[in-house]
Structures are given as C-alpha cells and as structure tokens.
Amino acid sequence: MKVLDVCREYCIGCGLCKSELRTEMQRDEKGYWKPNFVATKEEQEFLKEVCPVTGLNSGKLQTKELWGNSVSTLAAYATDAHIRKKASSGGVLTALAIYLLESQKVDGIIQVSVCRENPIETVCRVSTTREDVMTCCGSRYSISSPWMSLSEMVQQGKKYAAIGKPCDIAALRRLKEYDKKYEGISYLLSFFCAGLPSMQANERLLQQLGCKKEQCKILSYRGNGWPGSATAIDSEGNSYEMEYSKAWGGILGRDIHPYCRLCIDGIGEAADISCGDGWYVSADGKQPDFSEKDGRNIVFVRNEVGEELMNEAVHAGVLEALEWDDVSQLDIIQKYQKTRRTTLQTKLVGYRVCGRRTPQYEKALLKEYAKEASVKEKFKMFLGTIKRIIKKII
Fold this sequence. Notes:
This protein is of the alpha+beta class. The chain is built from 17 helices and 15 strands. The chain starts with a helix and ends with a helix.
C-alpha cells in the first residue's frame, strides 16, 4: 500500500488514471485534480509501472548526469520572427510542432491550451494546423491534467507528438512501454519546469494585477518579448501588466504543487527534446540577465529521435541553432534547476525525519547529484525543509 499512499499524497494530476483505468477524478482544496483510488490490483500495478510521482522508475528515466543525458546541447530559436516574439523564449517547441505537422510527420500535436471560458484554467487539445499550435504558444503557469482524455484523443493508425511538463512526459514515456497502443505518439517534447502553481496563486496574480477574476478575458504569463510580462486583459479591453520576475518569483512560484518540491526532473529528461530559457549572463558573470532581448532556448537533444528531428528542422530553415559552448553557465542561468537536484537527497531526509512520505528515487542518482552541492548548501536545505514542515508551509 506504500506506493498507493505516495500516489494519493503527491499525485500531480497527469490524468492517465482517468484515461486508462476510468478512475474518478476530483479537485482538492488547491484546485489540483486527484484520482479517487479504490486500491484495486489493476490500479496498483498501473501506478508502479507508469505513475511519475512514485520515483520507482527514476533509474529508467534519469541518468547520473546532472543535466541529463544529451546527444547535443544547443542555443536555438525559431527563424519565424512572430513565433520567436510570441513564445516564452526562443519558440523552439512551437516551431518544431508546426514543422512536424506541415512536413506530415505527425497528424496531430497533443498539447495544453488556455481554456476559453476561464483564462486561469487549461484544456488539452489535438492541434492539427499552424493556427491551432499558435493558439497554444507560450507558457501556462496554471493547473493542467493533459492526459485525462488521452485514450479518446489518440486514434489508431495516426501519428502524434506530445508536448508537456517533464512529469507528464515521463508518465507518457512509461505508458508507451506499458501499452503498445500508444506507439503512435512518436515524439515527446518538454520544457524546463519550476513547479505547478495552484488555482489560488493564479487568483492572487489577477488580484495584484488589479484585474477582477470574473472580468478577465485574457491572461498571458510571458511572451511577446523575452522574458515578457504577465498580462491580463479584461472584458472592457483594459490591460494590466507585471514583470515576469515579480509574477513568478513573488506570487506563482510561492504556491506550487506539493510534489513539485520533491520532483527529481524539472529538465525534461524523459523527452526526445527539452527546452529551457537560454538566459544570457550578466556583465559581472554572476547572475542571469533578465533584460528584454530576442528570445533563445537552451535545447537538450536527448536521443536519436530528437537528434533527427532537430537536424531536419534546422536544415529546413525552421530553426537557427548553434552548439552551446559552456554548459557550466547553466549553474548560473538555471540555478534553481541545479539546486533542486543537488539538494534533493538532503530535502528527502528532512521530510523523513519529520515522518513524511516521499517518492522512492534511485539512491545512486541522488548520491551522484548531491556531489555537486556544498555541505553548506545541503545543511541549509535540511534545516529549511524541517522549519517549513514544522510551520506547515509544506
């Protein structure tokens, strides 16, 4: 029952239990979707093989490399200026999705889009045209359960690409091995993720923007520049803006899903291609430069499938890409991702000391990542974790 207990506590709401087992889903107090498990043998077997929060498949999905396995690491951006500007950073995933459709490599792109009725909600759709993909362009820092209707979306004999959070893609990678009927999902694409904000976090964002929730018609979290601003537009056409760093760092990122605090993979290691913000480094070389620029992604090409796709897209003129010369820069421009991985072992100890359940990650992975953190960093994480648990912050 331990695996089931971990799933109940940390379920990230990818939706596969609903799609494959017809498990009932319901919202919790934070707005996150949770399955109502009845502990059948079928459910428990499925969770052991597929569920991304158990940690049981970490040894199959992650490598001991801090930034994950990669065939190549690139600095890239969409050559289409409109895509590049509208996207959250360089527009690589949007450009790849359009290329896959227009080159007829896939019949559809399974991806998350904004809900028309409520701009702080999301829906999952199958995009079949450039216009469909552009509707999904940009980050959505709101709750998503992309695979809840997967079995209904995927048609036998057709090919698809799927774009999702690292945990979503990890679940889908395992599902493809568990059930061969999903072999038609030929490409798995992901992005760097720092956590899934709650419904209340999104409501606080609107409140601090000065836009009434019931009047909000459009909410974009980033884009139209890099990094761009959080922007809300109400029913009367009034626009409200906030700096990205304040919107994420001061509001959204402070109220994320409980599993996100223990996630081993925020960098899309289970994907064929994963993209993050390829921030430039400040003049003093000590921090990211968040001043407005033309966007670019750092792109990890994880395997041969990703390598072939990336090469074809560059050759077709869809993307501009160069080798990323100094991967050590990631310690600065993606400091959060490094810290979360290198101190995860320590954080898990803090949880267990306080009697809390945790995912069961491969110990060798945690040990290897921890080598990259100083004793001071690990001790700080340990004490901080215990303090936050005692204060019931986490």
